[in-house]
Task: inverse folding
């Protein structure tokens, strides 16, 4: 697809933790169509991937994450629950910066904005300039999971708290067409929108005993012990269903529900021109070692809406190129 050089295509990359590797697949899928967004806004994992794309380091990032094993994910987790989050975050962002280099947002090849949230005022923060690492680090700071970042006099957390898919941000960057990527559009639980009447019940004797056992074990129930810690931590951080959810599962899933409801409201008021929705519901929030699946799902999601992308971009395409346009199926 040959587009006019004057067209500005913006892409808004949403939040979703480990699901975010699908952003790489989406960008690869668009490239195969000849579509290269030239302005980028990202929130949380979308900011991390978006910064790599804006700096022409997407290939290096993809190679890095495709090589992840569950052990590699564990090694990048600098557990530090005394700093406002279970994970300090410095180790993983040191590794990410090795891919990107020590650069400022202004030095990126494409205009880029990362979204974060002021922890105390709830104000939406847009980073269009300054240190790239700190901006992305702040945007990724999932409350309770990743320690918040102090910049100036503000403590900043995940941008997904206020703007899970930053369509409004990319529109403010003066673009002609907005493509949004929704990582949580394929929910495991359908039809959960209506309230349900439910009678409360007393716990059974077995449930009381189990609850007391978990209470006595305390924090070690989350982290595990010795060899069990190493072998099972990834499972404890994953969002799979369980009879007794872990602390991390409760935090992550609760934030997910809040973000989903907030996302629907914002997208209704400011919809993108195209919304790409990878089918990645089965990838857990902390399963960063499943990059192969996520990237493949991102590419497939682009193919699923290729006809809509071509229709949205056709006004910005030379008439001669429309004759050679092939809709992907």
Result:
């Amino acid at each position: 697809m040959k587009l006019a050089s004057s067209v500005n295509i913006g892409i808004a990359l949403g939040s979703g933790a480990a699901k975010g590797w699908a952003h790489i697949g989406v960008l690869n899928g668009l490239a195969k169509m000849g579509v290269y967004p030239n302005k980028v806004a990202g929130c949380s994992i979308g900011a991390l991937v978006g910064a790599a794309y804006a700096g022409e380091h997407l290939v290096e990032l993809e190679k890095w994450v495709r090589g992840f094993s569950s052990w590699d994910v564990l090694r990048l987790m600098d557990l530090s629950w005394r700093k406002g989050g279970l994970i300090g975050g410095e180790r993983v962002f040191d590794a990410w910066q090795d891919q990107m280099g020590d650069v400022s947002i202004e030095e990126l090849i494409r205009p880029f904005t990362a979204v974060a949230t002021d922890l105390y005022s709830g104000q939406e923060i847009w980073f269009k300039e300054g240190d790239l690492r700190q901006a992305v680090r702040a945007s990724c700071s999932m409350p309770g999971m990743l320690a918040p970042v102090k910049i100036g006099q503000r403590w900043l957390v995940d941008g997904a708290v206020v703007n899970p898919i930053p369509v409004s941000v990319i529109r403010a960057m003066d673009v002609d067409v907005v493509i949004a990527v929704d990582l949580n559009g394929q929910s495991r639980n359908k039809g959960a929108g209506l309230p349900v009447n439910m009678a409360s019940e007393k716990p059974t004797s077995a449930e009381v005993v189990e609850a007391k056992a978990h209470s006595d074990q305390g924090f070690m129930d989350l982290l595990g012990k010795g060899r069990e810690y190493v072998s099972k931590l990834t499972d404890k951080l994953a969002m799979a269903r369980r009879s007794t959810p872990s602390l991390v599962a409760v935090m992550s899933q609760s934030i997910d529900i809040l973000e989903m409801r907030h996302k629907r409201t914002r997208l209704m008021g400011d919809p993108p021109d195209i919304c790409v929705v990878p089918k990645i519901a089965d990838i857990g929030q902390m399963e960063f070692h499943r990059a192969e699946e996520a990237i493949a799902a991102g590419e497939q999601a682009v193919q699923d809406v290729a006809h809509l992308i071509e229709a949205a971009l056709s006004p910005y395409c030379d008439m001669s190129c429309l004759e050679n346009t092939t809709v992907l199926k």
Observations:
- The longest helix spans residues 247-269.
